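**Entry details**
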Amino acid sequence: MHAHAQFCMSGDHTLEGTKHAIQEIVKEEADEYFVIILSDANLSRYGIHPANFAQILTSNPQVNAFAIFIGSLGDQAARLQRTLPAGRSFIAMDTKNIPQILQQIFTSTMLSSI
């Protein structure tokens, strides 16, 4: 875990945090790179356009970057998921689903590299 919300300034730093994580992770040599973003899917509240988030998620082909939306106001997470690249975002309305989502991410990435 790179940063915990408890120690972050108020406001939404999803784009900056995602970009930073993707840039930093490739500085270390590794077989594969994963960045998993946990967000409340409240991007529109802060004026963040989904296309900007999508661009950052796919900015480095070496990095497998994904978003897990943990909560939603209405259908906001589902609407956001439809605008992001297929397979790059997941919705966990209950946090007990996060382990299965992570397993799905790692399995699909492994199978796509074969």
Q: What stands out?
A: The longest helix spans residues 98-112. The chain has one domain: 5-112. The mean pLDDT is 88. The CA atoms of residues 24 and 85 lie 22 Å apart.
